């Protein structure tokens, strides 16, 4: 186990996310004062639960959150995560990596996480107990901890030695046990108070329950007398109802006959009315059609008149257009003659102009040629003069360049020789370094490939392990939940089976009959033979009431035999339902607007042989959703039927209502369903558990295999990591040297290439320049000769040009005058042509219009003929439709007469129907009154004694004498008892149970106190033994380490109070080499520091902690002690990983890895990894 990673974000001077990766061995953290290197150790202490902000060099929690800088805003929270490699499973947690994280906000809120799951600080402390890791342990040692070890405060020193001796976890358990002991004693005190209170209540309750039992006996006698009185009254009413119902049936049949006749006449009237309505619609449609024909005829007349008007208009227009055409033709002839005359004059003038143009063109060509020659000669002369000046300047420039090139050529040749010598030397060095680099690169690549391959394998195994453990946990949880469920299912199943076997919920008499297998023809209680859907259980239980206790028999003889059995054994009364006597009384048709669920007998399942009995009992009971709907239904049906709601409320015939809390009858109706349900659940759960167990065995094997593979691969990766670090360091150094050689050689080669190019260019340029000078001289001579020849030619051409120009000007003047005359002729001709075009266009337009009008007249004549023909057809249709309309009106009158006759007959039948209805209503009123009286007695019976009539029949006794005197006597005896608390019977029972329960609790708590006290004593004894053994080891180690680190001398640790070893102060004495034994307070600063370091190393030898952070504890030591410190530190790395925050060279030299902490930006720390060579260079800077 070792510290693998530390992640900081927003903590103190680390605003940006910073990851520090640690390896096994010694890691040094270096940096200038104020760079934030000690904030790394503060971060570890803080994440492990340090609550004292002062010990972290702050005043309040928000001081550990980045406060901002010149370039970065303050942060609102900070976070530190510490990852521990737990592949050896030293921590008692099922993960190969354990990440402890703490997050704090400026509002003071602080949160802890364990592997990214929210947890308590207590959870983290429990995991780290007895590892030395923690804010109070010896895994983090800074200058303050050194002072604590050496201080006179015994408490601080004890914490370190308790952790080192491994008794912290036992001290923690002892503290927890003492807390449990206090809680248990407090619980015992509370139990005692309750026990005394119950003891004071139990005697008065006993007296009350004796009085209550006497009251119940008298009440039962009174109940028997009054119930029999109600039964006799209800039987008298039933006899009267039987007689009136017979009369009601006769009237009902007569009403049914009259009702059928009435329906026939109503249907006939309805049919005739429909026929009349259909004829009325037909008449209306025929009338509309006739009117539409008339409308079309009128429209046709109107259209014929319009067509005649259009024909007259077209004829008039043709006549007017013909006259206008004659005028246009005359104008066309006159303008054509005038156009021809002007055209002849124009042709004469054009011939004259052409002759002048020809003459001018000849003169223009001659003049232009002469002019171009003169201009060309002048341009050539000027160009030659400019070129001569340019050649003279150019010759001077070329001469200067030629001198410079000769000097450059000599310099280039000398530098080329020097570069060749330098390149040869570098090539020899480069070849040697490249061979070494290639060997190291191959080695690094091989190691990286191996590491990457191992990482992939480890990650795959970790992922598999995580999934396996997750599956294992989920399956265990599932199995545990299944086991709890099985216990619950089995318990409930046993209860329901026991209830079923013992006929729970049935009266004594019913139970005895059902148990007696010698009685023949007994089919079971009514509650046993029905199956009720769960949602209807309350409703059906309320509807059945006491009927559930009734027993179904084959016939009356079977019932009689069972009754004799009950009488003979004096075991109660039971109502029997003989199947051969009881017949169905089911409602056939219900007329209502209320939504009902159904008739009760239709909502349950049963064997068909019990149909008559169940329809007799439930066939006139309506099940409805709620009491509001029930009241609405009862009003609609005149309170004729019994209504029950899904919640068990009852609306009785006659209007009475029963409701409130429904006491179940021992789950009689639901027991079978529940037994089947729980049997199925148990079967399914057991099958699932068997499957889970097979999976768990397989997963456990896979987990062991994964762990073995992970351990093997990670060990191999660690070794490769160490080797790779050294290889990378060597590679970087050689690579840098090669790059320097290559860079130098590249510069030389570039320089040589540039020199070669320059030399070549110089030689070429020299030849070019020498050739240029010769060419310039030749050109200069030729240009002078050409200028003289061109001046002579220029004089001749100028004289010819002036003579020809005079002739040209005279001809051009006459040409201009003739052009103006020709322009006038052209304008006149264009005007006449335009007018002729307009006349032609107008003529064509008029001719076209005449043709269109003539065609229009032909079309109109054809349309007039067609319209007249359609008009005659419409007149014929009109005559035929008028005849059909008259026939329909006659048919309607005949149907109306039939309807009137039928309505007269229907009125007479309605009268008879209403008379019968009135008679039936009177009979129904009598029945309702009797039913109401009956229901009133039933209601009183139920209200007084919670019994239905059928339940009450079980208490019937025809021989019992009922008179007012006996009833009054019993009532007097009941009143003489005064206030009676019937609940006291149950209260006494419950209080007695509580009394017995708290007696047991009191005894259990006393035993618990004794057990906890025994555990505390055992813990103390174990702590004493372990502390003494471990302390002696540490003391022996201290003597050895002290001698080594001081190069001699003696050190000793002493327990001052051997009698109270667990609380005793520990004395530290030291004798540096060549000095007397001294108390710690007399030692120098360096001696104190080295003594404390000796104690720390002694503890680590006796009980190594996985990692240890040392924050500048060696600062006071001199160089020789630093060397010994560093050497001993290296020896301890076989068992402990060290992270040393330091600025001492000796400690850095002992380190395997070095991190530097710098502040590139003000107030912001940055961590960089350093190689050993870089660290040696940095030592001088620091």
Notes on the structure:
With 1182 residues, the protein is an alpha/beta fold. Among the domains are: 1-139 and 1142-1182, P-loop containing nucleotide triphosphate hydrolases (Rossmann fold); 522-665, 2-Layer Sandwich (Alpha-Beta Plaits). Helices cover 70% and strands 9% of the residues. It is built from 19 helices and 23 strands. The strands form five sheets. The protein has a six-stranded antiparallel β-sheet with strand order 2-1-4-5-6-7. Helix 15 (983-1046) crosses helix 16 (1085-1102) and helix 16 (1085-1102) packs parallel to helix 17 (1119-1132). The radius of gyration is 64 Å and the shape is flat.
Taken as a percent bin, the fraction of beta residues is 5-15%
Low-confidence stretches: 1178-1182
User: What percent of the residues sit in helical stretches (DSSP H or I)?
Assistant: over 70%
End-to-end CA span: 33 Å
**Strand count, sense and closure of the main sheet?**
6 strands, antiparallel
Which value, in Å, is the CA radius of gyration? 64 Å
Mean pLDDT: 81
Q: Structural class, from helix and strand content?
A: alpha/beta
Number of helical segments with 4 or more residues: 19
> In CATH terms, what is the fold-level topology of the domain at 1-139 and 1142-1182?
Rossmann fold
How many extended strands? 23
How would the global form be characterised?
Answer: flat
As laid out across the biggest beta sheet, the strand order is 2-1-4-5-6-7
Subcellular location: Cytoplasm
GO cellular component, one term: cytoplasm
Protein name: Chromosome partition protein Smc
Function: Required for chromosome condensation and partitioning.
